[in-house]
Amino acid sequence: MTGTGRDDLDGEAELSNAWVAGETEPGPAAGNARPLVAASWRRSVRARVSPDGAARVELDEDELAAHRDGHPLAAAMPVIRELMGAYATDGEHLLAVCDAAGRMLWVEGHQDTLRKARGMNFVAGARWSESAAGTNAPGTALAVDRPVQVVAAEHFRRPVRAWTCAAAPVHDPRTGRVLGAVDITGGSRLAHPHSLGFVQAVARAAESQLALLTPAPESGRLRLSALGRDEAVLHVDGRRVRLSRRHSEILVILAHRPEGVGGDGLLTLLYEDESVTPVTLRAELSRLRALLGPDVLRSRPYRLADVMDADFTTVDRRLASGSVAAAAAEYAGPLLPASTAPGVVRLRERLAGRLRAALVDRGDPGLLGDWAYSTWGEDDVVVWRALCATVPASRLAPVRARLDVLEAELSSGATDLQRTGQHTRP
After folding, report:
1. Quick one: pLDDT at residue 307?
2. Are the beta carbons of 101 and 331 closer than 8 angstroms?
3. What Gene3D superfamilies does UniProt report for this protein, alphabetically (predicted)?
4. What's the mean pLDDT in 15-20?
């Protein structure tokens, strides 16, 4: 965490001034801005967030109550309130908890501060994801999956720059999936590194509480979390193992093919380079076997000794049964998004395509909005078109504006491609 001294605050102001003036990249005047803030502002500009806009309230009272009741973080709220409630009220701050899509589930604290926060729609039911509301602590913490503090002028939107906030993501203790974030928001007194450490400790306490309420894993049961991660996490025999990228790809393929895969087939699914030899693959499998234990990975053909419960196969099963909302809730992002292994790329594109088609067919504006405002869906013109067709009239304007931008970019790209083709035509 970078300190919040005078030099840092000056750099943040310079960054704000440069970008508000119309620049879409930090210029020399913004050279003192923290890299985390500069990267977040770039993403906010790319998502076409308006610097003068306000967060949208997407859940009415009934929808909010139902969403709270069914959300895993509801079980952690007693601990969160115990640790943060008095601190927020006495310090004239707010405690807030949002879901993984950045929608505020609970916003509580000092009454005067709550009243002021309503002026910028920092209220339960509003979406504060980074792609919808620009740089802010809970939204950016979800975007980068780590604790974040945003001070005053570091906020992307002007109406939020009188505030300071710190937030930390909360993970499912069983799968490692991001469930949401816990946040402390208030005035300049929060512009201190201790605020970041405080919310991080609260998030860890919430995860510990959820772990106490989660049944212990069955011995020998294999569970793989690979959605939204470049490196998968495997739960085996009560252990949590973070895998290398190559080992992640191997286990994803074997989870998809429980019947097993021969050596030549596995080579084809893993490596783009056809010159990679079976010796290289056997060395990777040997290292993986040493990591997992001798009884997990078998050969001839290569397969797992036990059934693998993987998050991406769970999404597949829920889609097959017609449980679209449950599938969307389980989907934490593209399957091993950085992987270029041919077998993984096919699985990733197939799963995302099936889920997207199901969401469009269902036509639920809440589910479509979760996809559209995610990091993987912010440029998905198909989903934005579907959202534009289903969203209530009161929420249509920002959706229509975003769709117009995407369609203009699509049209411009097609025109550029045609021109390139004309220039290169013999």
Report:
1. 78
2. no
3. 3.30.450.40
4. 47
- For CA atoms 8, 13, 15, 16, the dihedral sign is positive
Q: Please give the domain boundaries of the chain with CATH numbers for all domains.
A: 6-213 (3.30.450.40), 222-310 (1.10.10.10)
Query: φ and ψ at 372, to 5 degrees?
Result: -65, -35
Region 324-343: mean pLDDT is 93
Residues 88 and 94 sit within 8 Å (Cβ to Cβ): yes
What's the token pair of residue 85?
A: 């409630």
Beta-carbon contacts of residue 278 (< 8 Å; ≥ 6 apart): 263, 264, 267
Helix-helix angle 35-46:6-20, to 10 degrees: 20
| CB neighbour list of residue 93: distance below 8 Å, 6 or more residues apart | 87, 109, 110, 113, 184, 185, 186, 187, 190
Q: Is the dihedral of CA 402, 408, 414, 417 positive or negative?
A: negative
For residue 104, how many C-alpha atoms fall within 13 Å in the half-sphere facing its CB? 30
Confidence band for 9, pLDDT divided at 50, 70 and 90: very low
Using CA atoms, how far apart are residues 169 and 148, in angstroms rounded to an integer? 9
Q: What is the number of other CB atoms lying within 10 angstroms of the CB of residue 415?
A: 10
| Helix/strand/coil for 303 | strand
Omega of the bond leading into 301 within 30 degrees of 0 (cis): yes
Instruction: Please tell me the predicted confidence (pLDDT) of residue 13.
Output: 43
CB-CB contact of 137 with 169 (8 Å) = no
Please report where in the chains the tokens 């790809």 appear, as a residue: 249
Question: Is there a contact between 152 and 188 (Cβ–Cβ < 8 Å)?
Answer: yes
CB 178 within 8 A of CB 170: yes
53: left (phi over 0), alpha (psi -120 to 50) or beta: beta
Contact 291, 241 (CB under 8 A): yes
Q: Band of the pLDDT at 394, cuts 50, 70, 90?
A: confident
Q: Whose structure tokens read 């041919």?
A: 342
- Contact at 8 Å (CB) between 91 and 333? no
With tokens 């087939």, the residue in question is 265
The tokens describing 41, both together, are 């502002």
List, as one string, the DSSP characters of 54-71.
---B---HHHHHHHHHHS
CA 113 – CA 425 distance, rounded (Å):
64
Question: What is the reported pTM?
Answer: 0.75
Nearest Cα residue to 15 out of 54, 36, 3, 186:
36
